[in-house]
Specification:
The protein is an alpha+beta fold and 172 residues long. The protein has one domain: PAS domain (Beta-Lactamase). It is 16% helix and 27% strand. Strands 1, 2, 3, 4, 5, 6, 7, 8 and 9 form a 9-stranded antiparallel sheet that branches. β1 and β2 form a beta hairpin. About 3% of the residues have low confidence. The structure holds zinc ion. The site of zinc ion has 8 residues, from loops.
């Protein structure tokens, strides 16, 4: 037994840097520093210490939402499993959204087939990050212009993270 796994530190390729994993709160979007001074062993705490409500999820650094971003977490069967606090202002309350179909809240001018394919890929672990145009169909949707969605994998449990960006206060 002499073969050690190659160390991940030291000589990261750009692909490996892009694949760097970070943790964020499914509710408030706060980044979690897994090397915090207190609490359980790094990597084991599951509930956000910032808001006490969200579950900590892991995603690629390039896909991580900013705090106060509008985002949804969606399972492979296109069921919404989490919505950020900011997302509630766009898509409706967490209580009304969790468990509902994503396609009741979002569609894409590229077609729902494309949208659902990208989400299914992300929800099953694809490391690709895609940005596609979206329309929101939430309670305030008529006030929105076209939005963009950044789709990436996150977990555990494995799911798709959709960070929605655009002018939510869009005026005609
Ligand atoms: Zn939080």
């Amino acid at each position: 037994m002499s073969a050690e796994p190659t160390s991940l530190t030291g000589t990261l390729t750009s692909d490996e840097l892009r694949a760097e994993r970070v943790r964020f709160c499914s509710r408030c979007g706060a980044a979690s520093d897994a090397r915090g001074p207190s609490g359980p062993e790094p990597g084991l705490e599951r509930v956000c210490v910032e808001c006490g409500m969200g579950v900590l999820l892991t995603c690629a650094r390039e896909a991580m939402p900013d705090r106060s971003d509008v985002f949804l977490v969606v399972t492979e069967d296109l069921s919404i499993s989490a919505v950020s606090e900011a997302g509630e202002g766009v898509f409706g309350s967490e209580a009304s959204l969790v468990g509902s179909s994503l396609l009741s809240s979002i569609s894409s001018p590229l077609g729902d087939d494309k949208l659902t394919r990208l989400i299914a890929e992300a929800a099953t672990g694809s490391r690709e990050v895609h940005t596609i145009p979206l329309y929101a169909a939430g309670p305030r949707a008529r006030r929105f212009r076209r939005l963009d969605g950044r789709i990436a994998t996150c977990g555990p449990p494995r799911a798709a993270l959709i960070v929605v960006a655009g002018r939510f206060d869009g005026r005609r």
